[in-house]
Structure formats: structure tokens, C-alpha cells
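user: can you give me the structure for this one chain? C-alpha cells are fine.
assistant: on it. calling the predictor now.
[tool input]
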Amino acid sequence: MIALIQRVAEARVDVGDRTIGAIGHGLLVLVCAEPADTDAIADKLVAKILKLRIFGDADGKMNRSVVDVGGGLLIVSQFTLAADLAGGNRPSFTGAAPPEQGRRLYERVLATARAQHAPVANGRFGAEMRVALVNDGPVTIPMTMRG
């Protein structure tokens, strides 16, 4: 799985004119499933995200996790993270999991995250979404999780 993690002061996702998910201080996590991904990989991704120490401690060092600071998670599916630009200027997305598998693994990530942390907000798989965020730092971490 591929994830792009952004430490945020706030973030929200809108579908049409309605906000469907929002958090204050925490992490915006864009997630893309790949064809070889499994439930175990999705679970491992969530575990890593929850332990990722990218929030400042009393000395300003990145030593605290989203769990430590009581931050929220906004998890949004984004197949374009699998973009391949090797063939030219128009990206290919053949590296992304097929829609059925992608939806199942996205839902697995959400369920696993909710079982271990709160609050967890989400986007809508396959929808045209608008994501708004205030990046805190800025801190943006790319992550690839394989078996």
C-alpha cells in the first residue's frame, strides 16, 4: 500500500457541497491499494501510522505519535498515488489495485484504524472529493508498505 501522510492543524473532505469528514489537529492520510496488497499489509500500514512519531514533544523534537497527542485521522482513498510517469506525460494508474480490491482494502484500513484510535474521519471511495487542509510544519511523509 502507498500512503501520503500530512501532519495538519485541520483537514476536511467535501463531496459536492457537503463536508463528509473533518478533523482538527492530526493526520491527513491519503491511501492507495496496490494489486499485491492484503489485509495484513493494510493492518501493518495502520499500525505504522499510529506509531509514527512526527509530532513535537516539549523540546520541539518529533517524538510523539498521533495517539500520544490525541490527534484525529482523516483517511482518504487516492488511487493516483500509484501514478506511473515512465511512459510519458500522461500518468498510468495500472499500478493501483482494481476498484473492488481497492474499496475492500480502504474499508479495512478504516475499520482497523477505528478499532485502535479515535477520532477517525474518512472520504468516500470512488467519489469526486475536495480535500482542504492546513499543513502543520509543513510535515509530509510518503510511506510504502509491502508484505
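assistant: here you go. The two ends are 9 Å apart (CA to CA). The CA atoms of residues 39 and 59 lie 37 Å apart.
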